[in-house]
Amino acid sequence: MGRIDLSIASRTEGGWSVIDVGGEIDVFTAPKLREHLVGLIEGGSRRLVVDLLDVSFMDSTGLGVLIGALRRLRETGGELVLVCGEGAVMRVLTITGLDQLFPVRSSVAEAISA
Questions:
Q1: Are 38 and 6 in contact (CB under 8 A)?
Q2: Among 22, 25, 43, 52, which residue has the least CB neighbours within 10 Å?
């Protein structure tokens, strides 16, 4: 069984940087996501939406990347919102209690209008 790679694409919508993520976020692919988020934050983005609807799996490494990005943004008065449907990623957020730390929305439209 081949490993599923991570796809990451960014766009700007309504003053937010929207990061569309697809595939699996694990110990092998999380550094790619971290690099992308840090690049956006260092480039001046203060309002980030991370769209996880197409993510099939996320482990603790991926959670660590998101927490790190949230900390960086909060230090500068920024915001990070996760877009997540029912499924594996939402279960991980709920089990770890991180659904209380991050604002979680069901769509990008809902995230940027909140």
A1: no
A2: 43
